[in-house]
Amino acid sequence: MELTVNAALRGNRVVPLGLSSSPATFIPLRLVRAGVTIEPSLIYDDPADFERTVGLVARGVLQPSAIMSDTFECESIGRALELASTGQAGKIHTVMC
To answer: How many angstroms separate the first and last alpha carbons of the chain?
Structure first.
């Protein structure tokens, strides 16, 4: 969390997705001075919701790949971030190394 908040440019929004049970640390003054916003995300922890969603995808009712616009190898993360910053891409998938 600290790395993400510190890397956020002025006016950016940080949305934590991968959560841990460890306390997050950051300097609140950095958020205020840079105008960085931390926005919470919704996490589903109900196994029934997950099972239902997987079923909808399996039946073709939901098509998550339809929003994927680009895939980058991890070596090209810079290009992926540049594209993401334009606002012209859908979901960008990065293959982990």
So the answer is: 21
Q: Are residues 53 and 11 in the same domain?
A: no
The b-or-e profile of 11-25 (16+ CB within 10 A means b, else e) is: eeeeeeeeeeeeeee
Calculated CA dihedral for residues 40, 2, 77, 68, nearest 10 degrees: -10
Say how many domains are in the chain.
2
36 and 49 inside one domain: no
Q: What is the pLDDT of residue 79?
A: 92
Is the pLDDT confidence value at 23 over 90?
no
How distant is the alpha carbon of residue 46 from its chain centre? 21
Model confidence over 38-75: pLDDT tens digits?
988 777 677 788 888 889 989 999 887 778 889 999 89
Range of the domain at 87: 44-97
